[in-house]
Amino acid sequence: MTPITHVAGRRLALSNLEKVLYPGDGFTKGEVLHHYAGIAEVMLPHLRDRPVSFLRYPDGPSGQRFFSKNPPPGTPEWVRVARVERSDGAGEQVVIDDLPSLMWAANLVTEFHTPQWRLDAQGRADRLVLDLDPGEPATIVECGVVARWLRDRLAADGLTAYVKTSGSKGLHLLAPLVPAPSSEVTAYAKRLAVEAERELPDLALHRMTKKLRAGKVFVDFSQNAAAKTTATPYTLRARDYPTVSAPLTWAEVEHCEAPEDLVVLAQDVPSRLKQHGELLAPLVTGEGAGELP
């Protein structure tokens, strides 16, 4: 029988709670739901008013994965659905504004991905993102070197960079912006990526071409485009272990000597929040937001 629970007055059917989703350490679906319930206070502000794209992996990272922007079949009527302008015409997407909606979505077993803009300003980004993706044998250690260079370069333009793990192999840099057209943010981010490649020729790369990526860090600027999304802060990722796209301190990045130094698991997040607080709060509040140069 599927357990029924009530969350903030909403009735939810939660299924397969004992199912192991992360084979690396036996992390179960029930523990997935516990993770999201525990970090809802800090995650919801990053989801609120942004349409969600789902990367679902209901049988774990080795099972089938499918990406969807449309509301899943059976979406409850109380889950917010908003009209979103897309390159192929207008469509509808789910917006996660509250705890019941978050828990409903988490029960689908999904990564949460969101754009750099809010619904009331579609196509106008209020943050910049640079996705640093290492090509073997480079690792997150090399990403950290590139991240520090980009942090200082952004600071020279009056922008404050924050950093989080991608939850996969690399790092995400984010900077709060005075809202600007996504096309202009993308163009600026590309200039930064090209400049990083010029200044760090043995380490940074602005092109996606696979044959060029061995041992280098691809500075992916494309996620600033209005149609693109990035892993939402605090989302679990579809990996062997329950890794989280989690905020880091710059001291952690600077002192990283091995890839495992910057792995954050779901089990680590509560203690990190107690120690560091919400490191990405300025991305929500807009505090210190800078204008594009």
Automatic annotation (TrEMBL):
CDD domains: MtLigD_Pol_like
Ligase in keyword set: yes
Statement: the UniProt record of this protein carries the keyword Nucleotidyltransferase: no
Pfam families on file: LigD_Prim-Pol (PF21686)
InterPro entries the record matches: LigD_pol_dom, MtLigD_Pol-like, NHEJ_LigD
EC class name: ligase
Lineage: superkingdom: Bacteria
Keyword list, A-Z: Ligase
Enzyme Commission code: 6.5.1.1
Ranges of residues in domain DNA ligase D polymerase: 28-279
Entry's Gene Ontology molecular function annotations: DNA ligase (ATP) activity
Protein name: Non-homologous end-joining DNA ligase
Naturally occurring in which organism (per UniProt): Streptomyces evansiae
Gene, per the UniProt record: ligD
